[in-house]
Write a structure and sequence with these properties.
five-stranded mixed beta sheet; 387 residues; 12 strands; Trna Endonuclease, Chain: A, domain 1; seven-stranded antiparallel beta sheet; alpha+beta
């Protein structure tokens, strides 16, 4: 494999010194490539010509000249032009093109500058790695969180996993960051698709399982990095007969401080307000289900604090409990179809102390905002790379 010597010929093109496919003293076959900013498809940045060159027999140092082109208009019916490449020549051509792809992609999809020189064998491998990772990123985006985890487990289980990791370390930080963003985008899109398809689902266990699967949404509510510490975890409260134990839907743990938070899950179909005004015409009381959820999670909190010392001794994983915050995920703001209902609901939840109420559509709206930010960042970064 040869080196690629670059001469920039314009803002969107750079010529590469001819790559010799078939050497000779007087005639030779070469590939004359160009690297271009392809506005239609930035993943296809290489074009070029395969042609013959000649020079005088007695002038070894003479410049090579391209042979005159055969005009297709002068060809007669039944005639043609045949250019045959042997296996070595075709391999060299494909590797050269692949290497030039690698040069362009590795440098942020920017044209190289005049005087720069690249080892095409090395950059052919770079292109292969980047192409594989691009396919993997698309797969991750389609498969979501479970697919991403499966892919990572597969890589770690392979005998050559160290080589894979070494190749990843050779990539630019921007490339690695974008792969990470794509994986996150895939998970966010999957969670939103689940929400859109199940807005009217009244099955509480379905929503508990869904939010356990997409537990990252809780970080958008609490503005702190949280993970699921457990679901339906016993926090105390059993009588001597062994009944009455308290089990909140989720315990979340702050990843940095290890403090726990309590979450109670209902459904988007759960009513937020009473059906008739408490004080006509526009004052509505919280529904029985909302008041019950708030009371329920408050009882969980009280019981947990009372039994904290014993539970911490009996639990292997470290956790802390200091006036834990509580969250109830319940209902859908689509139910609030008048100004009076909207104001009544806001007055109620803002008056609560220690417990936050968020509706399902508000929760997934936060996910949508994050998705828009990430997709906007990816688009902005890509546009910036092209300028």
């Amino acid at each position: 494999m040869t080196n690629a010597k670059i001469t920039q010929t314009g803002p969107d093109s750079a010529a590469v010194e001819p790559i010799v496919l078939r050497p000779g003293d007087v005639t030779r076959m070469v590939f004359k490539p160009q690297i271009v900013n392809n506005k239609q498809d930035e993943n296809k940045p290489v074009k070029g010509h395969v042609l013959w060159q000649k020079r005088g027999k007695s002038h070894a140092g003479e410049e090579w000249a391209d042979e005159a082109h055969t005009k297709l208009s002068h060809m007669t019916a039944g005639s043609g032009i045949k250019l045959e490449l042997n296996t070595d020549e075709l391999y060299l051509l494909t590797q050269a093109v692949r290497g030039l792809y690698g040069v362009y992609w590795k440098h942020g999809k920017r044209l190289p500058k005049t005087g720069e020189e690249f080892d095409l064998a090395e950059y052919s491998q770079v292109a292969k790695t980047l192409d594989t990772l691009d396919s993997a990123a698309q797969l991750i985006e389609a498969a979501g969180q479970d697919g991403f985890v499966s892919l990572m487990k597969w890589i770690v289980s392979q005998q050559n996993s160290r080589k894979v990791i070494e190749n990843l370390s050779k990539l630019d930080l921007a490339d690695l960051a974008e792969i990470n963003v794509l994986a996150g985008i895939g998970m966010l899109k999957q969670s939103l698709a689940t929400w859109e398809a199940n807005k009217a689902n009244p099955d509480e266990s379905f929503w508990q399982e869904t939010l356990a699967k997409y537990s990252f949404v809780f970080s958008q509510v609490f503005s702190t990095p949280v993970v699921v510490f457990g679901s339906k975890v016993y926090v105390g409260g059993k009588s001597v007969e062994g009944v009455g134990g308290k089990e909140p839907d989720f315990l979340l743990k702050n990843e940095l401080t290890s403090h726990l938070l309590l979450v109670e899950i209902k459904t988007p179909e759960t009513g937020l307000l009473s059906k008739t005004p408490y004080r006509p015409p526009n004052v509505f009381a919280a529904s029985r289900e909302v008041a019950g959820a708030v009371t329920q999670v408050a009882r969980y909190k009280d019981t947990f604090l009372h039994n904290y010392a014993n539970l911490r001794i009996e639990t292997d994983e470290l956790f802390r409990l200091v006036d834990p915050r509580c969250l109830a995920v319940i209902g859908n703001t689509a139910q609030l179809d008048s100004e009076g209902k909207k104001e009544s609901f806001e007055h109620f939840r803002r008056a609560l102390r220690g417990t936050e109420i968020i509706t399902f559509d508000e929760l997934f709206r936060k996910v949508e905002v994050l998705l828009n930010l990430l997709e906007g960042k990816v688009a902005h970064d890509r546009d910036g790379d092209q300028t």
